[in-house]
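Q: I'm building a small set of examples for a reading group on sequence design. Run inverse folding on the following structure and report the sequence directly after it, with nothing in between.
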């Protein structure tokens, strides 16, 4: 059996490589050449991810280099072939980052765009501001406007909000009920932003910068292996020319997004400095408020 033949690698790692070899469309020589030349398109994201996961430990690498072919399982022989490529697993990680860079950039730009749009929705929602004013008048008379926190919108549940909507209907007319209900349809990006994990978003931004830096470090390594790294160096150099520019754009968009969120938080929620750890909380509160508001409107329609 394969597992009995394996002498060097952790069994799970050995099995992963064995499975990889059964699904691989390329020959070992094709893989080695693509890694030498930096042809990440030929390897593909899935293969690069698989290779990244099976990087040997220092002890495993030492044993692989010391054993003869007849003492190694097929998966181990494949791994030893990979080790003939200079700094092969740093290449793998660099090429994986290159291969996924565009999708990472697109994801961040979309996230920033949604958050910016959510800020505009809140800033321009006259009806939401009107509701807050009435909540202040009806439900939070003991709290002055300066000390108002957006959570107060949720404190009274549907009972308070029914009173709020009734108050607005008295001053604006029954047709305003539909306008109130349509808030959920209007504040679409607010609800999308409420679903964004800000901690994950910050981590994604940080990983982008770190990834660019690691690729730069691999490029420096290639300077010492000129004969083995000609095409690889050219591929990585060309990528970095674009990546550095894109990373700077992301830094600018990130800064604009943070400014917009802090500004809208100051307007709706008080001191934004106290909300650093939960910077998108204002959108979560508005989303929950819209849910309660919709329920209150439905109760009014039934009655």
């Amino acid at each position: 059996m394969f597992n009995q033949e394996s002498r060097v690698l952790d069994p799970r790692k050995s099995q992963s490589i064995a499975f990889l070899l059964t699904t691989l469309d390329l020959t070992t020589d094709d893989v080695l050449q693509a890694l030498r030349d930096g042809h990440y398109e030929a390897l593909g994201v899935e293969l690069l991810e698989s290779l990244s996961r099976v990087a040997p430990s220092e002890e495993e690498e030492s044993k692989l280099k010391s054993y003869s072919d007849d003492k190694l399982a097929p998966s181990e022989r494949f791994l030893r072939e990979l080790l003939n490529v200079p700094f092969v697993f740093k290449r793998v990680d660099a090429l994986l980052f290159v291969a996924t860079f565009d999708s990472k950039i697109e994801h961040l730009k979309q996230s920033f765009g949604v958050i910016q749009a959510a800020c505009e929705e809140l800033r321009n929602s006259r009806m939401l501001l009107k509701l807050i004013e009435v909540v202040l008048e009806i439900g939070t008379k003991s709290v002055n406007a300066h000390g108002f926190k957006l959570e107060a919108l949720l404190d009274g549940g549907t009972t308070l909000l029914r009173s709020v909507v009734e108050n607005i209907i008295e001053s604006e007319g029954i047709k305003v009920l539909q306008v109130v209900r349509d808030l959920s349809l209007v504040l679409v990006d607010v609800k999308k932003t409420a679903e964004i994990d800000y901690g994950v978003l910050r981590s994604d931004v940080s990983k982008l910068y770190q990834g660019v830096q690691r690729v730069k470090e691999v490029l420096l390594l290639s300077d010492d292996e000129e004969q083995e790294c000609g095409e690889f160096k050219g591929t990585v150099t060309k990528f970095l020319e674009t990546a550095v520019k894109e990373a700077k754009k992301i830094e600018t968009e990130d800064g604009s997004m943070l400014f917009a969120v802090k500004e809208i938080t100051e307007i709706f929620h008080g001191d934004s400095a106290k909300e650093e750890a939960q910077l998108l909380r204002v959108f979560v509160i508005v989303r929950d408020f819209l849910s309660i508001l919709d329920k209150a409107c439905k109760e009014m329609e039934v009655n």
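The domain at 2-85 is CATH 1.20.58.630 (Methane Monooxygenase Hydroxylase; Chain G, domain 1).
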